């Protein structure tokens, strides 16, 4: 394609940037040839230009499409260049928090500076067995690829881990070693993996130190070779080290530290074993305080030393050797503190202070002479051709000699540690293959680079050359495999740079030559380098401003080296005299091992008295020892030789590369510094891989992938062909005009860089054009439909508008006519109203005027006549006013006095009202008071009526008197003479009127008082009624609250008991599993011992069988047997009374033992006491003891009866408050219960279980009390027997006494004792009768309590039995003869029986036989032994049966049907032992005939524990077999198979490796599950156990699929979510079809369902974030975050999930879930605790038919 087409408008490119290295921009105008600038728009919206050279334009790099952003493999990018690589790494690191990325054969690892949950054991198991491209990039994927190639090709492998300091090389190496140790674990020596891992803390302590870039920087290179056997199990390891940085021992820069071990020693100086080492704080030693950083925040040096010591112990280093090692390290610290002083001003000689404490400690710890050390630290020996001289050294030379000695000791110590580690890790058997892990320093460039950096960069040059050749070789092999013509690819070969360093007369050669010169110096060596290479090698340059430095142009860039110190570091000179002193020490065996003697050529030490500056010691020249010669070999020569050996080793292995990148220098988590990252990418060879891939055909697609992806670009005639390869070739010829842009191989199509992006652009255009056509048609249809709707709406609107206008016109006309009529009438009414108003006004004025004149005249006439009347009325009024005022004052005084009395009474009443007694009395007598008040009210009413009658009588008499007085007045008026009489009568009349008014006022006041009092009484009555109602309401609320609390407490206790049951069951089954594993390990060890002894037979010995038998016969007391329903016996702890009773019984048995021994000892005593008195005292003591026991027994019975009555109270209350039968639904008829819905039956069962859990404690306590009383009864019986024996002894004693003594008094006493014994026996008999009565009462009480649940349980069991009979009819024909359901087995036929019904039993060979026939046969044999009281036979047969079942299950451990068969038989045998055992609760559903078959003499319920353990082991084996068959199917069936056609093309392109087709489909998975279900149903396993089995299997399916989804970024897409949800729905349909929807299997699929829904939901707004948080309740926060970060949007159809949205979801989830570590992957090895329920068998033992094909004729039918 032309540049104008590539650089069109809108194209995105990368331009250089000084801060971000590369910045993205978009072309605002297309490029045309000859343009001098490119017009760009940056991401922040600003405009910019990019200058171009018109003669040779260097166009910027093109940016890859968005769908390739964050690709797993950098080689899969369409445009391969530096900015694309940097952008992909940054996107994966910051947006998705992914630290691993592939780059061809390289794994790029970025240090997150944060602990991530991606290294747990579930992650290791998830990557184990997977191909390298099937999962997300990971160090475990590289390790698995190396392990798989080693086991497949039998070829040695190597992991080359490199990177600069702080990039995470050591951590990556440790994770790889951990992976190999776990996946390739040894079977014979389980500690070998621990030893391999234990070498890491030791090497970190002695070889790692803090630098400015890393707190745990490895200052040496190491190559760990892990050895594997022919079974590819770890059998050993070996370690090689390279170039330890010994200069760090004596010098550290600021903010750096020495090696960790020194600070660990100083931090542990207070330990007792270190008291003699003279240690102190790290600040007090010169070798540890130079960097001024003696402590690290996140490091505990003391704890690290403890880990180091534990690792030494694990590797076999004895404690004494460790102490010697630490002593040498302490001596190195003291050596650094030795002070050397100059003797004279010129400083040509020096000396050490004799009293120097550091010198004394150094000599003491190493066992050398102090004077010799102080001498040879300041002098050196010169050997010439004829003589030997001792020459003093200057202070600086002496300090250098001291530091050289310290470095040499530490170097030898480091080598010794490596040798001890190799010795401990030495392979114990023949090595078949190996995997090497190379943890070596990366390319280093500092401000000042010296000899160490030169050697490191030299090693990286060699490794880069090896890498280039390997990459080129792989590319060549790929092209040759696909038969593609290829030519040599030009790449940057660094062989000239390597020749410059290591060739003849190269840098190292000249350095070694200069070291041999007598007066060689760094300056002369630099001059030789200039002369030899400055103008002859393009890789060598000379700095402009320096004459003692040189520049080497490495593959990663130019590095300037300072020549100062090269010669000294290369020579690493240590004077032989000091080495001789160390060899002469006899104190430390470790020191002698580090510096061994070499022959007789040792150097004779000079005399202690020679102190001259030039003293001749010995003429002649002696040869140096071999070790000295080896030591004098230059460091460069040693390093070059070891490097060549390393390259030879790597060349003989298949390499795997890991490049570690340091994202920033501030050690901040998930912070990306682009400049630092680019520097490391250039230095580690990642860009070289990109260049090599880009120079060829980097993009590679299979024909199937290409056809599926670019089907949209094909024409119809091209799709008609049947050959996909030919179709792809035709499409490529049409689309890509240039044949050099692609190559068609045998199975793949190879594209040049950028061609895939071009094809994606074409595909996008075609899809966009198709979208435009679809949008056009859809918009046309939508527009036409909208037009038709608008047209119909317009017509409708017009019709309604015209009708509205017509109606409005008619309404206007009617209103106009009505308005005229209204106006006419209104005007008429106004005129008439005006006239009438005027007329009425005139008449009114006239009337008022006439009235005014008349009244005026009347007033004038009356004024003179009324004056006298007014005066008389005024005087009377004054008199009345005075009287009323006086009366009012009197009444007021009375009221005040009465108010004072009333207030006192009220205060007294209030005080009384406040007391509780008054309140109670008030409440108690309130009704009586109300009645009394009512009576008072009635009396007041009667008085009121009487007063009213009196008032009416007075009024009548008053009226008569008035009439009489008036008549008299008239008479007096007629008779003017009687005026005086008239005045008297008037006065009398006034008095009567005043009395009348006063009486009326008094009566009114009394009426008001009565009414007020009545009102108060009514209010008090209402208040009392309200208080009564409130009290009743409060009582009801409290009662309801108490009931609710009781109900909640019962529910909470039930839930807690269920949780405890599940926890105990899980812990117990884990113990069973661990026991089975230990048994298997024991058997494996026995087999291995037998194999090594080469015995002819490999069968299990009888001793092992006996061990198994004993284990079966005597189970562990720590386990909990699976009981019926939800019973949990071990959850009930014994009470204190039970403990007291146990102690009392122990005392009683101890007393019995003493009593059995006491008669003989007391009667035969030699103390001289009268034997008759002893016998009397003994009998009296026995009588007292028995009396106390009887009293104690009565008290216990009374207490038990009281406790029983107390415990029955809650149930009586519960029975009174609500009908239990109605709650449980037990009053319904069986026909209705059968007709009810299954959901109602489940609810009934749950309610019944909840009630029964609450009753369980009482039942168990009653059973314990019953057992306790039975034990007491048995004890009393034993007492009676012992007393009877004593009575016999007494009778014999009495007879002897009668013969010996005939005195009457003694005989009288004996007779009295006889009577007492007879009375005692009678009391005992009566006590036994009372005990029997009380025992019967207890049984009846227990039955009464059990009646609450027995009827419901019986009905449920009957219904369950009926359902089971309908579901699985049994063919059990009755035999001809009478059969009692027992089979007799002789002792010699026991092995034959086990072999027939267990070892060789095959149900398919016996048609018509029950699958559980072996269980029934065994139980019938148990019955026969029980009827014969043969307990030994029962135990023997039981142990043989358990051992036989174990052997059969072990032999057929991979056969699901066989394991299911014996699980069903084991459960059936457990149910038989319970159904026909001594527990009455299991017999509720038995028929009368079945009750006749119950065991009579022995209770075999104790054996249920062993059978329960065996059933759990078989169940776990069943789950393992099913999981082994399911796991290879899960990923292919759930995630890879295309059950919905057409979704594969929607997946993002560019997979690293694509499988051709999934090996399994969803149908195959469902068929496998159906086969499991059919096998379990065929063997008639209990439905509850079947449900638990499939719950566990579907948990495995969900966990494996979810783990794979979390570890595959390309699987997290919308199409994958749709596919996954459909597959899960098929599983749900299968569960419903099999009737397993209530087994809990639906719940374990919820995490997978929510993960599928999370892939499909919208992920944009805050509402979406809240919806996701509400949706993902079964997923952990890391799982949700992993899916969101790994979500891959569809190309061109979706947008990427923004980081802000992911942060919002994370914050919401953090608020929802509590803080704490959350697991990323699902632990698929988790096993749910299994519950084995009790099920009553309907099989009649006497009707059981045994087929003749089984051949059990040797058994006797009884």
Please state the overall shape, judged from the principal axes of the Cα atoms. Answer: extended
Distance between the termini: 98 Å
> What's the arrangement of strands in the largest beta sheet?
6-7-21-8-17-11-12
Strand content: 5-15%
Overall mean pLDDT stands at 77
Low-confidence stretches: 599-631, 1094-1173, 1207-1244, 1301-1307, 1348-1377, 1546-1556
Q: What's the number of helices? A: 52
User: Largest sheet, described in full?
Assistant: 7 strands, mixed
Helix content, binned percent:
55-70%
Number of strand elements: 26
Specify the structural class: alpha+beta
Estimated radius of gyration: 55 Å
Short description, anyone?
With 1758 residues, the chain is α+β, with helices and mostly antiparallel strands. Helix content is 62%, strand content 7%. The strands form eight sheets. Strands 6-7-21-8-17-11-12 form a seven-stranded mixed sheet, sandwiched between helices. Strands 4-3-2-1-5 form a five-stranded antiparallel sheet. Strands 18-19-20 form a three-stranded antiparallel sheet.
């Amino acid at each position: 394609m032309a540049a104008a087409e590539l650089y069109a408008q809108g194209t995105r490119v990368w331009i250089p940037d000084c801060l971000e290295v590369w910045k993205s921009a978009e072309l605002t105008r297309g490029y045309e040839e000859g343009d001098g600038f490119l017009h760009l728009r940056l991401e922040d919206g600003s405009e910019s230009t990019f200058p171009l050279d018109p003669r040779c334009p260097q166009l910027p790099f093109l940016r890859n499409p968005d769908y390739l952003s964050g690709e797993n493999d950098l080689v899969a990018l369409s445009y391969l260049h530096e900015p694309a690589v940097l952008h992909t790494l940054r996107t994966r690191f910051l947006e998705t928090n992914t630290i691993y990325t592939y780059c061809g054969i390289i794994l790029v690892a970025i240090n997150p500076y944060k602990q991530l949950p991606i290294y747990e054991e579930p992650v290791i198991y998830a990557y184990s067995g997977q191909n390298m491209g099937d999962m997300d990039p990971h160090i475990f994927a590289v390790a698995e690829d190396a392990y798989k190639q080693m086991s497949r090709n039998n070829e040695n492998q190597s992991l080359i881990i490199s990177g600069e300091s702080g990039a995470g090389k050591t951590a990556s190496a440790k994770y790889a070693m951990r992976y190999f140790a776990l996946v390739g674990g040894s079977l014979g020596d389980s500690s070998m993996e621990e030893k391999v891992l234990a070498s890491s803390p030791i090497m970190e302590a002695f070889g790692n130190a803090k630098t400015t870039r890393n707190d745990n920087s490895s200052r040496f290179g190491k190559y760990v070779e892990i050895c594997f056997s022919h079974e590819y199990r770890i059998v050993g390891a070996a370690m090689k080290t390279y170039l330890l940085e010994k200069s760090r021992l004596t010098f550290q820069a600021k903010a750096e530290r020495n090696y960790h071990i020194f600070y660990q020693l100083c931090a542990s100086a207070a330990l007792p074993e270190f008291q003699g080492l003279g240690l102190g704080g790290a600040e007090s030693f010169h070798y540890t305080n130079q960097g001024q950083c003696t402590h690290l925040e996140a490091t505990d040096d003391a704890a690290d030393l403890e880990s180091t010591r534990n690792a030494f112990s694990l590797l076999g280093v004895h404690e004494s050797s460790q102490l010697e090692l630490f002593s040498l390290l302490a001596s190195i610290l003291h050596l650094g503190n030795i002070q050397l002083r100059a003797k004279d001003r010129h400083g040509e000689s020096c000396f050490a202070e004799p009293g120097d404490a550091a010198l004394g400690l150094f000599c003491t710890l190493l066992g050398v002479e102090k004077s010799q050390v102080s001498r040879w630290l300041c002098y050196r020996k010169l050997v010439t051709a004829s003589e030997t001289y001792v020459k003093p050294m200057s202070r600086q030379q002496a300090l250098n000699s001291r530091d050289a000695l310290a470095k040499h000791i530490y170097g030898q110590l480091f080598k010794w540690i490596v040798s001890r580690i190799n010795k401990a890790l030495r392979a114990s058997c023949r090595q078949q293959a190996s995997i090497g892990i190379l943890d070596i320093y990366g390319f280093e460039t500092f401000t000042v680079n010296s000899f160490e950096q030169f050697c490191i960069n030299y090693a990286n040059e060699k490794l880069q050359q090896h890498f280039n050749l390997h990459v080129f070789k792989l590319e060549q092999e790929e092209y040759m495999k696909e038969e593609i013509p290829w030519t040599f690819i030009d790449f940057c070969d660094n062989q000239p740079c390597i020749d410059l360093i290591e060739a003849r007369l190269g840098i190292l050669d000249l350095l070694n030559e200069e070291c041999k010169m007598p007066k060689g110096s760094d300056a002369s060596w630099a001059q030789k380098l200039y002369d030899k290479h400055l103008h002859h090698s393009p890789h060598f340059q000379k700095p402009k401003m320096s004459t003692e430095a040189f520049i080497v142009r490495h593959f990663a860039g130019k590095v300037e080296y300072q020549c100062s110190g090269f010669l000294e570091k290369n020579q690493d000179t240590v004077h032989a005299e000091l080495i001789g002193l160390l060899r002469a020490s006899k104190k430390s065996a470790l020191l002698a091992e580090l510096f061994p003697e070499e022959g007789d050529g040792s150097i004779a030490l000079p005399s202690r008295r020679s102190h001259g500056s030039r003293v001749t010691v010995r003429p002649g020249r002696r040869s140096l020892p071999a070790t000295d010669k080896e030591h004098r070999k230059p460091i460069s020569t040693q390093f070059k030789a070891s490097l060549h050996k390393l390259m030879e080793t790597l060349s003989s292995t298949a390499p795997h590369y890991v490049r570690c990148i340091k994202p920033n220098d501030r050690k901040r988590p998930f912070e990306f510094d682009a400049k630092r990252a680019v520097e490391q990418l250039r230095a580690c060879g990642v860009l070289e891989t990109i260049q090599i891939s880009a120079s060829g055909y980097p993009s590679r697609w299979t024909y199937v992938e290409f056809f599926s992806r670019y089907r949209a670009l094909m024409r119809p005639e091209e799709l008609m062909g049947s050959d996909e390869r030919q179709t792809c070739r035709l499409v490529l010829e049409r689309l890509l005009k240039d044949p050099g842009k692609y190559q068609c191989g045998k199975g793949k199509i190879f594209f040049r860089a950028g061609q895939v992006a071009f094809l994606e652009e074409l595909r996008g255009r075609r899809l966009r054009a198709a979208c435009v056509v679809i949008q056009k048609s859809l918009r046309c249809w939508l527009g036409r439909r909208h037009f038709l709707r608008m047209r119909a709406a317009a017509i409708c609107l017009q019709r309604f508008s015209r009708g509205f206008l017509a109606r409005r016109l008619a309404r206007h006309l009617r209103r106009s006519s009505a308005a005229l009529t209204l106006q006419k009438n209104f005007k008429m009414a106004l005129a008439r109203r005006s006239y009438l108003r005027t007329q009425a006004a005139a008449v009114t004025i006239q009337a008022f005027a006439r009235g005014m004149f008349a009244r005026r005249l009347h007033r004038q006439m009356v004024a003179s006549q009324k004056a006298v009347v007014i005066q008389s009325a005024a005087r009377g009024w004054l008199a009345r006013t005075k009287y009323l005022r006086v009366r009012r004052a009197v009444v007021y005084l009375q009221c005040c006095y009465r108010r004072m009395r009333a207030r006192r009474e009220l205060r007294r009443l209030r005080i009384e009202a406040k007391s509780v007694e008054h309140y109670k009395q008030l409440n108690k007598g309130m009704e009586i008071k109300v009645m009394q008040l009512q009576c008072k009210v009635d009396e007041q009413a009667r008085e009121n009526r009487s007063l009213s009658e009196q008032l009416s009588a007075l009024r009548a008499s008053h009226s008569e008197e008035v009439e009489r007085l008036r008549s008299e007045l008239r008479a007096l008026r007629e008779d003017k003479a009687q005026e005086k009489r008239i005045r008297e009568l008037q006065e009398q009349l006034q008095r009567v009127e005043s009395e009348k008014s006063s009486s009326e006022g008094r009566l009114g006041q009394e009426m008001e008082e009565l009414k007020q009092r009545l009102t108060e009484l009514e209010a008090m009555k209402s208040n009392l009624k309200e208080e009564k109602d409130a009290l009743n309401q409060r009582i009801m609320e409290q009662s309801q609250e108490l009931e609710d609390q009781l109900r909640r407490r019962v529910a909470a206790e039930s839930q807690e008991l269920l949780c405890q049951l599940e926890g105990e069951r899980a812990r117990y089954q884990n113990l069973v599993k661990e026991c089975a594993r230990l048994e298997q390990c024991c058997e494996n060890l026995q087999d291995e011992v037998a194999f090594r002894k080469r015995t002819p037979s490999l069968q299990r010995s009888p001793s092992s069988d006996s061990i198994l038998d004993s284990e079966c016969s005597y189970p562990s007391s720590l386990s909990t047997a699976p009981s019926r329903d939800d019973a949990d016996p071990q959850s009930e702890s014994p009470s204190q009374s039970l403990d007291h009773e146990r102690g009392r019984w122990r005392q009683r048995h101890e007393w019995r033992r003493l009593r059995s021994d006491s008669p003989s000892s007391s009667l035969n005593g030699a103390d001289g006491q009268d034997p008759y008195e002893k016998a009397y005292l003994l009998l009296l003591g026995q009588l007292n003891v028995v009396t106390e026991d009887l009293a104690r027994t009565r008290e216990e019975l009374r207490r038990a009866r009281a406790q029983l009555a107390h415990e029955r109270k809650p149930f009586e209350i519960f029975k009174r408050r609500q009908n239990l039968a109605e709650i449980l639904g037990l009053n319904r008829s069986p026909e209705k219960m059968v007709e009810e819905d299954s959901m109602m039956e489940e609810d009934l069962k749950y309610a019944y279980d909840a009630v029964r859990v609450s009753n369980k404690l009482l039942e168990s306590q009653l059973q314990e009390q019953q057992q306790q009383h039975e034990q007491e009864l048995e004890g009393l019986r034993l007492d009676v027997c012992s007393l009877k024996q004593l009575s016999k002894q007494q009778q014999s004693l009495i007879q002897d006494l009668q013969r010996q003594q005939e005195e009457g008094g003694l005989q009288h006493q004996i007779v009295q004792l006889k009577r007492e014994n007879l009375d005692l026996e009678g009391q005992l008999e009566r006590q036994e009768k009372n005990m029997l009565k009380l025992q019967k009462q207890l049984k009846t009480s227990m039955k009464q309590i059990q009646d609450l649940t027995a009827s419901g349980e019986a009905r449920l069991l009957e219904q369950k039995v009926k359902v089971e009979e309908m579901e699985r009819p049994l063919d059990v024909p009755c035999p001809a003869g009478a059969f009692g359901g027992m089979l007799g087995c002789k002792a010699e036929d026991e092995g034959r029986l086990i072999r027939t019904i267990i070892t060789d039993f095959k149900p398919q060979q016996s048609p018509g036989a029950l699958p559980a026939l072996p269980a029934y046969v065994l139980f019938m044999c148990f019955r026969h032994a029980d009827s014969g009281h043969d307990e030994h036979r029962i135990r023997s047969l039981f142990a043989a049966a358990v051992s036989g079942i174990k052997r059969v299950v072990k032999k057929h451990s991979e056969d699901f049907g066989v394991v299911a068969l014996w699980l069903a038989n084991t459960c059936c045998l457990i149910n038989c032992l319970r159904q026909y055992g001594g527990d009455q609760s299991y017999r509720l559903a038995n028929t009368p005939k079945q009750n006749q078959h119950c065991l009579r003499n022995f209770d075999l319920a104790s054996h249920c524990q062993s059978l329960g353990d065996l059933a759990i082991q078989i169940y776990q084996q069943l789950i393992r077999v099913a999981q082994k068959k399911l796991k290879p199917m899960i990923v292919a069936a759930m995630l890879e198979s295309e059950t919905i056609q057409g979704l594969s093309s929607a997946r993002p392109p560019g997979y690293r490796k694509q499988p051709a087709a999934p090996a399994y489909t969803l149908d195959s998975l469902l068929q496998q599950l159906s086969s499991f279900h059919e096998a379990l149903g065929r063997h008639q396993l209990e439905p509850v156990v079947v449900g638990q089995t499939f719950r566990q299997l579907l948990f495995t399916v969900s966990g494996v699929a979810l783990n794979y989804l979390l570890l595959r970024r390309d699987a997290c897409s919308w199409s994958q979510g749709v596919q996954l949800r459909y597959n899960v729905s098929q599983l749900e349909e299968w569960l419903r079809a099999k009737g397993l929807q209530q087994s809990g299997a639906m719940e374990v699929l919820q995490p997978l369902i929510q993960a599928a829904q999370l892939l499909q939901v919208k992920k944009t707004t805050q509402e979406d974030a809240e919806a996701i948080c509400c949706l993902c309740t079964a997923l952990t926060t890391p799982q949700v975050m992993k899916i969101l970060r790994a979500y891959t949007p569809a190309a061109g159809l979706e947008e990427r999930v923004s980081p802000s949205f992911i942060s919002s979801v994370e914050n919401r989830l953090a608020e929802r879930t509590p803080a704490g570590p959350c697991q990323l992957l699902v632990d698929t090895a988790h096993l749910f605790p299994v519950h084995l329920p009790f099920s009553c068998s309907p099989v009649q033992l006497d009707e059981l038919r045994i087929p003749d094909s089984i051949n059990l004729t040797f058994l006797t039918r009884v």
